[in-house]
Amino acid sequence: MSRGFFITFEGLDGSGKSTQLKKLARVLQERGERVTVTRQPGGTPLGDRIRSLLLDSRNDGPAPSAELAMMFADRAQSIQQVIAPALERGDIVLCDRFTDSTEAYQGGGRQLGSAMVRTLHATLCGDLQPDLTLLLMPPFEESLERARRRNQRVLDHTGKDENRFERLDQEFFRRTDAMYRTIAERESLRVVVIDGKAGIEEVFGSILGTVDERLRAFRHESEVTVPVHGNADTP
Q1: Which range of residues forms the domain containing residue 186?
Q2: In a domain, 224, yes or no
Q3: Is residue 182 part of a domain?
Q4: DSSP code at position 79
Q5: Side-by-side strand order, sheet with 35-39
Q6: Where does residue 100 rank: exposed (0-12), middle (13-18), buried (19+ CB within 10 A)?
Q7: What CATH number does residue 13 fall under?
Q8: Could you report the per-residue pLDDT of 177-221, keeping only the tens digit for each?
């Protein structure tokens, strides 16, 4: 069995990535693909506990370096418990956020820098890289407003408050947005920027087209070639 295919969704809160991930998962499953869906922080019992500590706006929140450490504790657990086993089974893994989020939010927004994030990823996560990252980039102000409306709906209906990051000032998010753009430029083969200004279905069309193209190429490259025995002079 060939290794699975690892896709991550990235973007500011309110970019629409979670909606698009769910749509992609549904289409792939309808086609008969084996799909594992997860998120970060969260996706494991330990990760869900870390998520509640990180995102609850009723908490003062950890120091930036502690926040970074918690993100990687969550990620290392997710890789061992969810992502690596799914890839070994040959699944398509769809993950809502991965290390690009940490580099953007903690490296950029919290101003901890990229070097520390990338070093921790190499050390704690075995430098596991997605095969494809879909970076949704709607207009900056629109993304933040969507996130605030969504989190207020969740709070109203469930009592779960995950607004801590959305309550940070705009300069934090501008630094985060700028870091995402830096990552996209640096990792241009892996990261595909999706214009988030269009409607949901139009954005999804762009995502599905990109995923289909990359999956075909990946599977073609993964095909086992028949070894040639002997040489051209051998009868």
Answers
A1: 5-216
A2: no
A3: yes
A4: I
A5: 35-39, 92-96, 5-10, 132-137, 191-195
A6: buried
A7: 3.40.50.300
A8: 999 999 999 999 999 999 878 899 999 999 999 999 999 999 999
